[in-house]
Amino acid sequence: MELSNINEIEKATRKAQRELFRFGIPLLFIIGVMFYTWAQGGGSFLLIMAAMIGGYMALNIGANDVANNVGPAVGSKALTMGGALVIAAICEAAGALIAGGDVVQTIRGGIISQDAVANADTFVWLMMGALLAGAIWLNIATAVGAPVSTTHSIVGGVLGAGIAAGGWDVANWERMGQIAASWVISPLMGGIVAAAFLYLIKRRITYRGDMMAAARTTVPLLVAFMAWAFTTYLMLKGVSALIKVSFLSAALTGSVVALVVFLLVRPRVDRQSRDLLAEGATDKGRVNTMFTVPLIFAAALLSFAHGANDVANAVGPLAAIADVLGSGGSVSKSAAIPLWVLMVGAIGIAIGLALFGPKLIRTVGSEITELDQMRAYCIAMAATITVIIASQMGLPVSSTHIAVGGVFGVGFLREYLKSNHARMVDEILSHHPPADQAAIEAYLLRFDKAPVREKGSMLETLKQEAKARANPELFSSKERKGLRKVYRGELVKRSQFLKIAAAWVITVPASALLGALFYYAIRGAMLP
Predict the structure, then answer these.
(1) Helix (H) or strand (E) holding 214
(2) In this structure, are 234 and 366 located in the same domain?
(3) Which of 20, 306, 326, 397 is deepest in the core (most CB within 10 A)?
């Protein structure tokens, strides 16, 4: 056998070993959950099965949903993949254990009528079917590289299993209408907020002649506002699980933290900008560097808040099943989450993230549109500001849809700005004397450095001058149309846009269908 063939066999073997490891660790985790639950629950078969399914759900939440928190930071190179996995795993687990919540609603968000599942056996079968449906749908979405909402996945599972158990009339269709509306509301709000922040940064920093002077003034304010947003967000979404927090108290706490951060960041930004200037870095590169540390904190805080809120998607139905089985068969409207159940969710999310998370992290961070630190900052701000606004307005939104919508918003704004700039350059070329190439280049250089307001007046003046000297346009109307088509380059991958949008739309129906099928399968297996 030739040496090259041996090398190929060794490469294939190493790849197979890695895949075996990636699937072996989750299998060991689920087996561990089985034995741990047996020890905790006195050997109840239904509880052991529910715990294993809950562990499987937690693995899939880690693989799919956490990517939205760290993907932009990794895509912008503010964090390495390894660093992001470590930070997210620790913060997700900490959020789940520290602020995971003491109580979970057994009928998720009022999706189905409580009266439809008053029978304990029916309730347990329903919750197991819903949990398994949500987990499998998340697994499918992760396999195809589509970030989807875990909340919508479990809601769809509960809806489908509930309809299978009690008929169409048991569903709360008004609530489902609100969830369907969030498919549009969440990404639109996230995209608009992210695009607005990016445009603000461009107007206040990157479109200025002295970019570094503008950055020294604006970046501390942006970082301070980020501190306010994240503190308020954590107070409302994390601390509120431990103590009752009003929006006013959360906002005031955020303001104090923002002031402290501003006073700390301002001298650091000033010093950093001058140090980078001495190193000869480009202006935009230096400004991007100033957002690196805030993005690392953003990834950590978003992961903590996600662990505190979304752990219930993995272990909420498990806690409800444990409550029913432990109370002798009575179905209550809410159930306390035992510590061992939270442990299953926290560890499962961390393992799923470490082993399967990189695929979705790369999708969110680099496979939709190109991100740098400034753009990643805008997406992180969209994730927090949108949730704060929506929670105060009572709008149902998905954190996954918001974050991914922010990525699309940033990309589509860049496309628009690029196309608009190309159009203005086209105007300059078409109204400038074609023979004087040096004058054209000098004018374009001055045009690029001019503030936004001056650009319009420069174009208008150029048109008037060209008209006064009866200067014909450099390009014909047909040629200019062709050039504009060339300039309209796509900075957002349409294939990813269509794939993710389709996955969002079918998440609830797909998980509902799976929930109904699994309910019938479990019911059929359990009936004598």
Answers:
(1) helix 211-237
(2) yes
(3) 306
Structure tokens at 244: 């009752």
Contacts made by residues 443-452, CB under 8 angstroms, sequence distance 24+: 449/209, 450/209, 451/207, 451/208, 451/209, 452/203, 452/207
pLDDT in the model for residue 244: 79
Q: Tokens at residue 262, please?
A: 């501003």
Report CA-CA distances (Å) from 403 to 69, 194, 364, 389. 8, 9, 9, 15
Asked whether residue 473 falls in the same domain as residue 349, the answer is: no
Find the mean pLDDT for residues 208-227. 88
Position 385 in a domain: yes
* Per-residue pLDDT at 483: 46
CA distance between the termini of the chain: 60
Largest distance between two CA atoms of the chain:
96
Q: Please tell me whether residues 351 and 472 are part of one structural domain.
A: no
Residues 381, 402, single domain; the answer is yes
SS3 label, residue 332 = coil
Token pair, residue 206, equals: 């990157």
Residue 32, in any domain of the structure: no
Position 456 in a domain: yes
How many structural domains are present in the chain? Answer: 2
476 and 350, same structural domain? no
pLDDT digits 0-9 by tens, 191-207: 999 999 999 999 888 88
Model confidence pTM above 0.70: yes
List pLDDT tens digits, range 419-467: 877 776 666 666 655 556 666 666 666 666 666 666 666 666 766 665 6
Beta carbons of 252 and 262 less than 8 angstroms apart: no
Task: Kindly state whether residue 409 falls inside one of the protein's structural domains.
Answer: yes
- The domain of 464 spans 417-487
Confidence tier at 479 by pLDDT (50, 70, 90) = very low
Question: Are 497 and 473 within one domain?
Answer: no
